[in-house]
Design brief:
Layout: H1 2-34, E1 49-53, E2 61-66, E3 69-75, E4 82-85, H2 86-92, E5 99-104, E6 107-121, E7 124-134, E8 142-144, H3 146-149, E9 152-157, E10 160-165
Parallel strand pairs: 3-8, 4-7
Antiparallel strand pairs: 1-10, 2-3, 2-6, 5-6, 6-7, 9-10
Length: about 170
Amino acid sequence: MWDSLRTLAPIVAVFALLIGLMMWAFEGLIDRRNNPNLNIATGAQGPQQVVLKRNPYGQYVAPGSINGRSVTFLVDTGADHVAVPADIADSLGLERGQAIQVITAGGVATAYRTKIERITLGGIQFQNIRGSIVPAMRDQEILLGMTFLRHVDFQKKGNELIIEAATP
C-alpha cells in the first residue's frame, strides 16, 4: 500500500501544480476583464492624456496613486468627491475630518471630509484635492469624483474615455 501511495504522490503534486497555475491564470484574466487599463503609464513622467477602455460593466477602472501609493480608481462623474473606502483611507493614512452625509448606491451614509495631498492618474497629477472617507463603501476601488475630474477635460469616444489635463 505504501508503495502505491509513493507512486501516486508525484502525480498528485503535478495535478495540484496544474490546478494552481490554472487558477492563477484565470484570476489574471478576470483582473484584465474588470480593469482593461492595468498597463497605463503612471507617475509624473507619463502622458498628460490618459485613454481608458470601458470594462464589460460599462465602467472605466484604472490604476493610479494617492500620495505616492498605488490604488485603483473607478471614474465616477456622479460622485461629488473623490470617495475613499475607510479601510483604504486608513492604509493611506488619510485623516478623517468633519462628518458629512452622502448619498451612495446603498442610500444615505455618513462620510468624513479629507484632504488628499496628491492624486495621480497616468501623467496627470493634482494636489490638495478634497475627498471623503466613506465607511459604508466595501469596494476596493476609489471613486474618482468631480473634485478631481473638474480639473481635467474628458470626452467619451466609443468604448474609450479620453482624459486630459485641462489647460488654464
